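Technical appendix A lists one of the benchmark inputs used to test multi-chain prediction within the project. The record comprises two sequence entries:
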Amino acid sequence: MSRRGAGDDDEREAAMSGEPRMSTVTVDGIAVELPAGATMLDAAKAADRWVPTVCFDERQAPFGACRVCMVGVAGSPKPVPACTTLCRDGMEIETEEPTARRVARAVVELVLSELPEAPAPSTELAQVAERLEVGEPRWGGATHSVDEDLRHPYLALRHELCISCGRCVRACDEVQGAFALTATGRGFEANITAGLDAGFEDSTCVACGACADTCPTDAITEISLVRQSERERS
Amino acid sequence: MSRNLVELIRRHHSVDAPTALEVLKEAMDDHGELTDADRQRAAEVSGLPEAAVYGVSTFYDDLLAPRGTRHVRVCTGTACFAAARETTVERVGEGLGIAPGERSADGSVSLAETVCLGFCHSSPAIRVGDTVDAGPGVAERAIAGESRAAGEPEWVSLLPEPVLLRAGDWSGLRRALTELGREGLLKEVEAAEVRGRGGAGFPAGAKWAFAAKAEGAEKFIVANGDEGDPGSYIDKYLMERNPELLLEGMALAGYAVGAAHGFVLCRSEYPLSKPALDLAAASARERGLLGDGILGTDFDFDVTIIEGAGSYVVGEETALLACVQGLRGTVSARPPFPAERGVYGMPTVVNNVETLCNVPFVATAGAAAYRALSPDTDTTGSKLVCFNERFARPSVYEVPFGMTVRELCEDVAGGLRDGAQIKAVQIGGPLGGILPASLLDTRFDFEPLAAVGCMVGHGSILAFDQSTDMRDVARHLLRFGADESCGKCFPCRIGLRRAYEEFAADAPVDQARLEDLLEALELGSLCAHGGGIPAPLRSLLTHFPEELGLA
């Protein structure tokens, strides 16, 4: 395994040197002042500018998995992920920089292409796709096979809708401290499960619902909602 | 990497205690498949939640394929592809009557694919148990149960005095402890401009300086021996033939940054590496070169040798740290960098095996002597390169930077065997560009290779002969890329699968869509895996477009 991203050296230097201090950056021309350690996504929020995100949840540490929050930075040859890139004084951030947006759209299109059906319009993923004007994906190929776990009295886990954003696993780890969920598999087969893959009830799950609350595709949701949509369809 | 999980591990930590991954590996070795009881025991021993252990058990190749009494692993690395395409695994599967990932009904035999066994000099290669066989007839011997250990060619240095092939004698550590001191050693390594040999080329001295400055109750050195690049067997030679040089390099790193413990993560695909390193470490301990109060000073340093479990991306430094701690080998966003938060959340230096093997010479002979090793270029030190089986004299060679790729291929490795012609060479692993025969006069050095879309990478030089279909090469590389994606970032997880599907289908490749995909991979991927696989594709698009079936 070799080679790192071209910007890493600068990033490493920046991360490892200098005293913590406030920094002032502009987001689409709007100046905001931020504390040390603030990310570009923090800056965009402070400037009230929208940056699309899928794996981000403000209650959790940034994860850097979805790569949808790409933004442009003046003087940088390539876009950077806003959720994990720290602000440096004087940075000029451009949320709708064309290359950054092209990458974000391409990634959202890829995500839609792995689902056996389009995500429900109410889901965060569907809303991000709509706002980025990503329609029907151009990609055929493999999709997740349907695998529904409806054993728990309240929680449904529909593996085919999982996009491995890690939000449920982090909610269980960082917010609830139950450690009932894990990422599974790797590559295209990556997914999530509870405990030893024997369902929520046979895990340390406390049925707090934090995972369902944060899931951007309703892969984890309330059983009652799944039943209701089944009734509506039939 | 979850800070909470790392904290749970730290609280259970003692360097001799097995990680969750090690418990699971032992269970596989013992009974050939994992049960929930194994996972529960791994959770108890490691302090990890059961779910986290389940996640680990579904990540690594070595934990997935069920094993029979005779476990046959066919190498599907790029050197074996260049030698025999995919015919070896097909033939063995037919002969044994099972497909990869299957075990025979009577449990006598099982078959799996593996990338790569490091016998690229003698491809194709097959591992049965811990015996690696290679060369003509290898498939038939595996089917008949008659596999035998293949030999490995001697390594050769082209330098007047070998540096990396010279057996480690600890003179560098002696000089550092008695003459240079911590500051002096760090200055010497910085002045030598030792660039990382794992592929990224990041200055080792700068990494060390960050870790030396970082505050932590403990610090750690991690030697990255997860030489996953198909076609490369350089670190394999170093770990198995010159393990004390690596241990000396690690001790020097520990002395420079203030670390008292190091880990070597070597690959499970190299069954001889961990035993060689364990033996060398035990011998060094006996001689007072590792342990407490090394050479009568107040410097303490010891090492733990860990074996991976089958994952290419674990060669990425954050994934490597996850694996060292027994977690899923997925990549984490940086910052934090390992120099701030590494093993057990403590400041950690991660250096490639070859990089660390460069340091004893710097400590012994000084930065000026190190800089002089490659007289024709500003790049410092020497480099190990290795060649695949297509060449007449494939082996590991120590060379100065600045020779042309043609000189390396023709004068050093003797050109291709049996009068075959080079169609192209892939340099530096699966994330390295592909150099067509017309550009062989490019110098083997960081900048000249970068100028033609290639890289030094880890130093493998892998020839495809005239009979090679470049669309097959694209498909081979993309299958590897998709199979090995850790699954963390979306562009790599889904994009490499889509790219593979494009080239595997019996249909023209939509160029416009491919371009969008390559850009998303290059600019969007979290690590060099998704970001780097487009490089050889770009080369193929530039130099062999007519062979790719584009539309």
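The first helix of chain B runs from residue 3 to 12. DSSP finds 22 helices and 14 strands in chain B. Comparable benchmark entries are summarised in Table A2.
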